[in-house]
Every structure is written in structure tokens, then in C-alpha cells.
Amino acid sequence: MPKHVLVPVDGSPQSSKAVEFAVGEWPDAELTLLNVINPVDAGYSPTAGVPSGAEEWFEEAKANAERVLAAATPTAAATVHTRTEVGRPSQTIVEVAEEGDIDHVVMGSHGRKGVSRILLGSVAEAVIRNSTVPVTVVR
């Protein structure tokens, strides 16, 4: 039975279901809710550099992360921590899971199919492939 569960949250219904699942399945476990700010959303790329207005975008992204984490924080969990990181979501989730005492990841799946899944990739799939701890995907 997991003692510390990492739940990435992005404000989507799927991430809310992941939080509900984690609390329902392991009510005594410590939860860490993680929101990842993706710099690609601001138009950043290593070749193009930092776009104009990046500071304003980042401040807005941090405020949004605080709102998402506050909305996702369950009242029924034993202990809840919140954390915001900047980076590629799948890579950041795996890194956070590996660096601490996390022993399970529970995350929502957006359930993309077909061409959109191929073009956009799947954060959940990348986490499953690269995680050193068990991952549960909730739909």
C-alpha cells in the first residue's frame, strides 16, 4: 500500500478524478499534488529563445497553478502537499516521483485517440514508460 502518492493536476476533470481515486483508494496516504508549468505554452523554444511578454505569462501561469492546486486539494486526505514546477510535464512528473519518497503516481488520462494522440503525444504514456514507481491512470 502506497504511503506517499504523487498526483499531477492540471484543472481538467480527469485530474480531479485522479485526486478522488487516490484519496478513495489510499485515504491514509500522504498526497503531493503537482502542477507543471510548461514553457512551451508561452511560445518558448530553445532555438527561438524567450518570447516577449514571457514574464507576464509566467506570473499568470504561477497564479493559475495556485488556483488549480487550491481547487484540487481534497479535504478528506490525511496529509496534502502542493508543488509547482516548470518544465515538460511528463519529464517533470517522472523527476519529481524519483527525487522524493513518492511510491506511486496517480494521474488522469485525457483519452485522446487516433491522429491527435500521435501528434500531441501522451503525458500519461510517457510517465508510464519512464517512471521508476508504479503509475495508475484514471479515465
TrEMBL record:
UniProt cross-references to Pfam families, sorted A to Z: Usp
| Superkingdom of the organism of origin | Archaea
InterPro entries assigned to the protein according to its UniProt record, in alphabetical order = Rossmann-like_a/b/a_fold (IPR014729), Universal_stress_UspA (IPR006015), USP_A (IPR051688), UspA (IPR006016)
The organism encoding this protein is: Halogranum gelatinilyticum
- PANTHER family in alphabetical order: UNIVERSAL STRESS PROTEIN SLR1230 (PTHR43010), USPA DOMAIN-CONTAINING PROTEIN (PTHR43010:SF1)
Residue runs in coiled coils: none
Q: Where is the UspA domain?
A: 1-139
Against Gene3D superfamilies, the record matches this protein to:
HUPs
Q: What is this protein called?
A: Nucleotide-binding universal stress protein, UspA family
